[in-house]
Amino acid sequence: NTLLELGIKKGDVVAIYMPMVPEAAVAMLACARIGAVHSVIFGGFSPEAVAGRIIDSNSRLVITSDEGVRAGRSIPLKKNVDDALKNPNVTSIEHVVVLKRTGGKIDWQEGRDLWWHDLIEQASDQHQAEEMNAEDPLFILYTSGSTGKPKGVLHTTGGYLVYAALTFKYVFDYHPGDIYWCTADVGWVTGHSYLLYGPLACGATTLMFEGVPNWPTPARMAQVVDKHQVNILYTAPTAIRALMAEGDKAIEGTDRSSLRILGSVGEPINPEAWEWYWKKIGNEKCPVVDTWWQTETGGFMITPLPGATELKAGSATRPFFGVQPALVDNEGNPLEGATEGSLVITDSWPGQARTLFGDHERFEQTYFSTFKNMYFSGDGARRDEDGYY
């Protein structure tokens, strides 16, 4: 209702630049409910990056916070937004909604800047959701892309939600009542698909964590698992390796007995880290689902199904339902058997991105021109004699 009061309507883009607090999820879901398109910008990005994303997406509103907090340090989110909006090419922003997170000192522009708590107080708690077409945009998420201008990957309402929900349910073997914790920031696709939309579409309890997994003590992640009796834990090899470096200090004083499933995302996990994660965090009883996917795929593409797929340390194992991967050589010729090559997908799936915002030609160029009639992932892969990737 607040968004509607501010003149935001179906199809408008709203930039969200917030810390990992529940209000970030509220802002995203509020956009989805009225048919506005959210563009979440990772809270670690610079004012220049924020400005670039606002300009490219033509965002009408920014939702931010006075400051964020990370490992005891404050992050000047509002100041970064102020600096971004000084860019003369930013012309579309009408208001900045500010959540009071720390109460730190910030600059204020009367008429443009509005406090979150003031707006919420005045808003009605009744609202009829906007009816959406399956192919209407749900969100834009920018991938930094190794080349120049950021790419605004666009996901739609129907296919994306179906895929996020289905992959969440089967890959994490979700059962009603499970407590699920994905440590990803909401500014990345993992935070969209597997902190917010996938779990909530399945009615799961999803845990949101503002801090870092090894601060103020190396056992912080394990303590959170015990405190909230987490059943499913999804994190990144970077975090796992950082904890592994701490040895047994990473699990000191905790038993992690509530855990049932462990997941890994973001990069290939080396077998040593996989073994440590399985042994130390999961007490040698939790399957590790190593998931390969991308911002552009919307959800898991190659992943084990816990209890059904025989696991191999360091392997994402086999494709999810209906996903058709292939390995090709530099000319695009399919390679058979145990081999390595460029990883492509040869048929559609519900969660695939539909375009790059405002630049469909670049979308086709980037993902579909390298090899004809194939989605080009940009990743190399190895397939073993069991057909595992």
Q: How many strand segments? A: 19
CATH class assignment of the largest domain: Alpha Beta
**Tally of individual domains:** 2
The CATH H-level homologous superfamily of the largest domain: ANL, N-terminal domain
Provide the succession of SSEs: HEHEHEEEHEEHEEHEHEHEHEHEEEEEHE
Overall pLDDT score: 98
Q: Taking strands numbered 1, 2, ... along the chain, how are they ordered across the largest sheet?
A: 7-6-3-1-2-8-9-18
Total helical elements: 11
Residues in helices, as a percent range: 25-40%
CATH level 3 topology of the largest domain = Rossmann fold
Main pleated sheet: 8 strands, mixed
Uncertain residue ranges: none
Task: Explain this structure.
It is a single chain. This protein is of the alpha/beta class. Helix content is 28%, strand content 21%. It has two domains: 2-131, 3-Layer(aba) Sandwich (Rossmann fold), CATH 3.40.50; 157-346, ANL, N-terminal domain (Rossmann fold). The protein contains eleven helices and 19 strands. The strands form four sheets. An eight-stranded mixed sheet has the order 7-6-3-1-2-8-9-18, sandwiched between helices. The protein has a five-stranded parallel sheet with strand order 11-10-12-13-14, sandwiched between helices. The protein is globular and about 65 Å long. The mean pLDDT is 98. This is Propionate--CoA ligase. Residues 2-346 form the AMP-dependent synthetase/ligase domain.
